[in-house]
From TrEMBL:
<comment type="similarity">
    <text>Belongs to the enoyl-CoA hydratase/isomerase family.</text>
</comment>
<dbReference type="Pfam" id="PF00378">
    <property type="entry name" value="ECH_1"/>
</dbReference>
<dbReference type="InterPro" id="IPR029045">
    <property type="entry name" value="ClpP/crotonase-like_dom_sf"/>
</dbReference>
<keyword id="KW-0456">Lyase</keyword>
<protein>
    <submittedName>
        <fullName>Enoyl-CoA hydratase</fullName>
    </submittedName>
</protein>
<dbReference type="InterPro" id="IPR014748">
    <property type="entry name" value="Enoyl-CoA_hydra_C"/>
</dbReference>
<dbReference type="InterPro" id="IPR018376">
    <property type="entry name" value="Enoyl-CoA_hyd/isom_CS"/>
</dbReference>
<dbReference type="InterPro" id="IPR001753">
    <property type="entry name" value="Enoyl-CoA_hydra/iso"/>
</dbReference>
Amino acid sequence: MTYETIIVETRGRVGWITLNRPEALNALNTQVMLDIVAASTAFDADDTIGAIVLTGSERAFAAGADIKEMESKSGLEMIMGEHFGQWQRFADLRTPVIAAVSGYALGGGCELAMMCDIILAADTAKFGQPEINLGVIPGMGGSQRLLRAVGYYKAAELILTGRMMDASEAERSGLVSRVVPAADLLDEAAKVAEAIASKSLPSVYAAKAALDVAMETPLAEGLRFEKHAFAALFSTDDQKEGMAAFREKRTPDFTNR
Ligand code: HXC
């Protein structure tokens, strides 16, 4: 399957999606959204895929939603458009997604990275929510996910001023999982993705679901979910295999059952 705005590849058990609108710094127009959702949900439906990497170019992960496409829209058109429901399908993937961010991750680009589970940043990465400079506010989760990642005061400063932060400030603030030299970004992303893809899928799905629940619920409810998800994994062959392999001092051979 070929796509208009992204490059999609399978490398072993890892699905790769590379944004490919260099002329617009990978700005997220409707076609990009449809392509990302189609490619990522196809990977999600494939049990030979254990992790997805989403990346952009050296210059930009994505410089935001496409301003030229949005500019003339009315409020009603925005609310009735596909943006919110379609991006939610990406956020709802059960497969872990690693955002490998180099260059600009602004507005919707930062928000897209925050829909992923792990954010690896090149030392050249720049994050920000500059929507306030356009007379609007974040619209793909920025005011909600950024606050949960970096806390109220850092999120408020970034969202109210539109200031960008560099990779090391983003790491200090808790927005990124790890900063790596730009030249190593894709290799590091591949290593992280392959590590995840080598685990048992049921446990990976359960771990991502538990983390998602933690973002959304009070502690008692999250703990209840975790307790049952943990116990349910004891009915898998892979739990028996994983623990036997530990005892026998060998690498587990998971079958995803
Ligand atoms: C459309 C964009 C774009 C965007 C860049 N381009 N960002 N087109 N939408 N978000 C285009 C430029 O118009 C230009 O094309 C080309 O990409 C290169 O950009 P330059 O501005 O010439 O590059 P540079 O001077 O290096 O500046 C890079 C930049 C700047 C700092 C990233 O492009 C910038 O500020 N972009 C906008 C960032 C932003 O405000 N993002 C938030 C969008 S709102 P041409 O053909 O003109 O040369 C948003 C809301 C999400 O994301 C919610 C949705 C529901």
